């Protein structure tokens, strides 16, 4: 893996290619924006963030962009963690590991240790573009706290689950599509959040 100035330049170009701000990157990594600036200037990144660096920018660059070879990538990505891929109908049913395993025979790798109810979904449609495109696989954690700005899987009454950004505006709560061609939805007591999206896994082939 690159170090120093070369890694800093790689991170800077990845941010530009992804079209996000340093503040967005900081939020995704649960760090402060000055830390991202430090990454770019010094190329020093805590080892705890390396695996997420690969997955966060996977939609715009390959691991080689950061100087990570195929062997290193295998060590980072294939850590044995995986979760079942569910349909959007099954996503609304609270389940434990054994039940989830019985529902699906397709498993999706995840960089973090999953909880007992963690599952994956395949994104449909274009309402969450440009960050999420059809075919992307998202990791959903039902036990993750819901906070303003996070991405959630939610259902209304008994309908199929949908994927939106959660907006907390004081007394009102909304579901916001990232694609501005779609309307913002005001939440009511008929909505139930099934889980928070904690990771994205993108497949190119």
From TrEMBL:
Q: Domain (Peptidase S24/S26A/S26B/S26C): give its ranges.
A: 87-198
| Name of a matching Pfam family | Peptidase_S24
Domain of life of the organism encoding this protein: Bacteria
A single MF term (Gene Ontology): DNA binding
Q: What is this protein called?
A: Peptidase S24/S26A/S26B/S26C domain-containing protein
Q: What organism is the protein native to? A: Snodgrassella alvi
Which taxonomic lineage is given here? Bacteria, Pseudomonadati, Pseudomonadota, Betaproteobacteria, Neisseriales
């Amino acid at each position: 893996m690159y170090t120093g100035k070369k890694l800093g330049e790689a991170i800077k170009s990845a941010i530009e290619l992804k079209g996000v701000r340093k503040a967005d990157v900081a939020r995704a990594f649960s760090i402060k924006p000055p830390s991202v600036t430090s990454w770019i200037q010094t190329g020093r990144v805590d080892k705890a963030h390396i695996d997420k660096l690969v997955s966060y920018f996977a939609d715009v660059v390959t691991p080689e962009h950061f100087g990570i070879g195929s062997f290193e990538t295998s060590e980072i990505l294939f850590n044995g963690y995986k979760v079942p891929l569910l349909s959007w109908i099954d996503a609304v049913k609270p389940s434990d590991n054994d039940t989830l395993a019985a529902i699906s025979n397709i498993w999706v790798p995840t960089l973090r240790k999953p909880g007992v109810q963690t599952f994956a979904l395949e994104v449909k449609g274009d309402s969450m573009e440009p960050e999420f495109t059809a075919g992307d696989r998202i990791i959903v954690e039902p036990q993750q706290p819901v906070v303003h700005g996070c991405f959630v899987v939610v259902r209304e009454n008994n309908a199929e689950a949908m994927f939106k950004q959660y907006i907390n505006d004081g007394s009102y709560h909304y579901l916001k599509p990232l694609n501005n061609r779609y309307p913002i939805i005001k939440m009511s007591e008929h909505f139930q959040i099934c889980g928070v999206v904690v990771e994205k896994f993108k497949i190119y082939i």
